[in-house]
Amino acid sequence: MLYGAGVCGGSLNAENVKRLTIIQRVFLLKFMKVYKTTSTQVLVVLAGILPHYLPVKAEFQKFQVWVCRSSEFGLVLDVGELDHFVKLPSVPIEFRIIDLKPQISNSQFEVYTDGSRIEDDCRLSVCILKNEHLFKIFKFKLSKNNTVFLAELAVINFAVRWAKENGFKINIYTDSQSSIEALWSASPRSAFLIETKMNLYLAGN
């Protein structure tokens, strides 16, 4: 039933969710052998199965991220000079410890970021969704002197700057645990990390 979900999942509205729920309910009633008056919500809990529209939405979002990563990269992102060491006392205290909220409820966009490096090819992409529909894609290359960590950090920094410059509220999704831990760190020494934390701080205020 998930065939084509990566493509058609973007058209999943309330009516389509209702249709999927009705179809799933028929199978759950036969599978669980319970009274027909049992609610669908109870059926999915008893069966230990997710409501079918949730995997459909997940497949669509994964496909959108894949599209961002697989497209041709035509732009070169200028991140300035190579990263360098900064003495901690010179870093303003408000930029050392920032409040990273797991998610905000009034987000206008969901932003998926990804950076990668294969040999000398360092790339990053930003996939922006609005109401679960593709809104915009940014794709960049970095010079071969950059690391995959800097690519992951640069793409987060770009997303924050994009939101700040346009006055948007966004949720950012990244699979880079090292970037998250670096942003949580209270002792940043990397100039580029400090710049990213500064933009996050300013965007939150």
UniProtKB/TrEMBL annotation:
- InterPro entries from the xrefs? RNaseH-like_sf, RNaseH_domain, RNaseH_sf
Q: Which Gene3D superfamilies match?
A: Ribonuclease H-like superfamily/Ribonuclease H
Where are the bilayer-spanning segments? none
A Pfam family of the record is: RNase_H
Q: Which residues are in the RNase H type-1 domain? A: 107-183
One annotated GO molecular function is: RNA-DNA hybrid ribonuclease activity
- Mind telling me what this protein is named? RNase H type-1 domain-containing protein
The species this protein belongs to is Araneus ventricosus
